[in-house]
Amino acid sequence: MKTQALALGFLAAAAIGGVAWVFIYPLLSGERKAESRRANFAKSEPAARQVDRNQRSRREQVESSLKDLEARAQQESKVPLSVRISQAGLDWSTQKFWTISGVLAAACFFAAMFAGGGFLGATGLAFAAGFGLPRWILKFLKKRREKAFLRALPDAVDVIVRGIKAGLPLFESIKVVAADSPEPLRSEFLTIIETQAIGMPLGEACARLYERMPLPEANFFGIVVSIQQKSGGNLSEALGNLSKVLRDRKKMAEKIQAMSMEAKASAAIIGSLPPCVMFFVYLTTPDYISLLWTHPTGQLMLVGCVIWMTIGILVMKKMINFDF
Q: Which of 112, 111, 104 is nearest to 129 (CA)?
């Protein structure tokens, strides 16, 4: 009897302990709260994944836009002559440019022959005047136009930022810049307005600014507007950051120019010494130095000296110019 009573008591205690383990222990130990927290976390995970996918999609759009702009810039590395003429701010045709170049070459050739420079010297002078001088003028005009554009671009971006913060659309802000800005910024933004008016998207019209004004700053502006048109975002903040970058780049360029002026002055003095010495020797003893352009050997030596001096000047120019 005692054995049966002990067995029944043990079974009853085991049953009560099992029921308590199943129903009471989870409440005391906090397992249900942990399971509830795990379930809530598992339910919120798809939302987090959705946000991550949205961010990844926008990042992929930005990367694809940058890759497209870089690929287009690489394809357009060889600029046609007509584009270079327009970049210089001239409305000439290519036929007019070649005509002026030919007239310059012929005039310099006959002037050199009349002065007794010989056929070889006259040919070299005609080549320099007809092929080199017009392109140097185009490059000079292009650089001067780009400097004027860079001086006005940060203020124009600030005007666009203030217009957007005031509630104006981007297109209307660009109209304000086109109406009040100096040249060449006015004509470039008027071209953006005209291009957008014929059906081109505003982002692509701003991105094409780099084709007419091949500057990193113009490329930055086109990239910011193009990405905002495709992906959205706070355009005023992006353009405000762009304005700060443009002003910092301007300060850096001025600092580099100030630091390199000594080297540029030295290069100018070294490059001008041979022709100056040649001129003063001609003033004192013209018969002594006139053999350089009257004798065939002297003409050959003179052409070689001009070539080597040109190479030296180009090397010095490459050493004192800084790209950033």
A: 104
CA distances from 321 to 42, 260, 287, 314 (A): 59, 8, 40, 11
CB proximity list for 58: less than 8 A, separation 6 or greater: 231, 232
Report yes or no: 189 and 206 within 8 Å, Cβ to Cβ. no
Query: Computed over its alpha carbons, how large is the radius of gyration of the chain?
Result: 37
pLDDT, tens digit, for every residue of 131-152? 888 888 888 999 899 888 988 8
Between CA 290 and CA 300, with CA 294 as vertex, the angle to 5 degrees is 105
d(CA 305, CA 84): 31
Give the burial class of 177: count Cβ atoms within 10 A of its Cβ; 0-12 exposed, 13-18 middle, 19 or more buried. Answer: buried
Going from N- to C-terminal start, the domains of the chain cover 16-75, 82-255
By C-alpha distance, which of 86, 242, 62, 60 is closest to 158? Answer: 242
What pTM was estimated for this model as a whole?
0.63
Whether residue 184 is preceded by a cis peptide bond, meaning omega within 30 degrees of 0, is yes
DSSP string, 163-227: HHHTT--HHHHHHHHHHHPPTTHHHHHHHHHHHHHTT--HHHHHHTHHHHS--HHHHHHHHHHHH
Residue with tokens 């690929």: 71
Tokens 């040919």, residue located: 123
Q: Is 58 helix (H, G, I), strand (E, B) or coil?
A: helix
Region of poorest pLDDT, from 43-52, 164-173, 235-244, 269-278: 43-52
- Burial (CB count <10 Å: 0-12, 13-18, 19+), residue 239: buried
CB atoms within 10 A of CB 261: 11
